[in-house]
Amino acid sequence: MIDKLLEGNKKFREGFFKENRAHYEELTRGQSPSVLWIGCSDSRLQTGHITQAMPGTLFMHRNIGNVAPLHDWNFATVLEYAIRHLKIKEIVICGHSDCGAIKALDKQTDDVYIPLWLNNAVEAKTRVDAKIKPPKTPEEAKKRSTMIELENIRLQIEHLKNYPLVKKALEEKKIEIHGLYYNLENGELSKIT
Question: Any idea which architecture 32-192 has in CATH?
Answer without folding.
Answer: 3-Layer(aba) Sandwich (3.40)
